[in-house]
């Protein structure tokens, strides 16, 4: 297999894949039904024309037969009256109308047969259209169910995919970090309070000692004054 044929096959396959992915069943089914409606309309027009042609040939045949009967009466009347020349002319016209009637009958029968066949084809086409229309609603409903199911499956799959898993792990790590920071902040605050308490105790001890010193000094002065 040549490289060019392989490239061509790959290109055709790729194009077909793209076209398949672009075909929405609902849209395509509606388009097929519209196309069939157009086709039925065209066939109906053709049938109407054929029926009109059938009626035209039938009318011409009836008119020719009526003239044949008229000329036949005229021939007999002319012979009864002794008008042989008139009878001859009437008979000649009768022969012409008989030939014309035979032609019209051939045309009429052919047109009638064609009209009958076209009516049958139109009936079959309409029957197929009604079947397809009924099937279209079923296919559309199935397509909608399949589309919804696919969306649900994709949503469920999206919850457990790697991206979502990494996102949840990252958020969990962040929450743990926030908790650790909050705990450390509490411990630091507790340390600060203990440190401040210790300083206060030291300061309190200094104050007590200073007060005791002042008190002793006052007592010494009082004793000295008493002496």
TrEMBL record:
Annotated signal sequence range: none
Keyword Coiled coil on entry: yes
Pfam families recorded: PspA_IM30
InterPro entries, alphabetized: PspA_VIPP1 (IPR007157)
Record keyword Coiled coil present: yes
Coiled-coil region list: 87-135
Record key words, sorted: Coiled coil
Tree of life domain: Bacteria
Family: Belongs to the PspA/Vipp/IM30 family.
The protein, known as: PspA/IM30 family protein
Organism whose genome encodes this protein: Brevibacillus gelatini
Organism phylogeny: Bacteria, Bacillati, Bacillota, Bacilli, Bacillales
